[in-house]
Amino acid sequence: MSSRLQVLIPPELDARLAKAAQRSRVSKGKWVRTAIERALEVAAGGNAPANPLARLASLEAPTADIDRMLSEIEAGRR
Length: 78
Prior knowledge:
Layout: H1 11-24, H2 28-43, H3 52-58, H4 66-77
């Protein structure tokens, strides 16, 4: 279950937050949650994500069969 946290921020910071979230194509809430998670990881003494595979999967990068990827890479070198 989630809990609600209310944080008061000045208008200038809210504007910067809105722009950062828009650039990342996520809601302000998601952007803030991600920033809090990262800050807590760094505060715990590490700067790597707790689950690097989950972080990699969250990037939603294009994927394909390895043979197809290698042929596309090779085609790009020509």
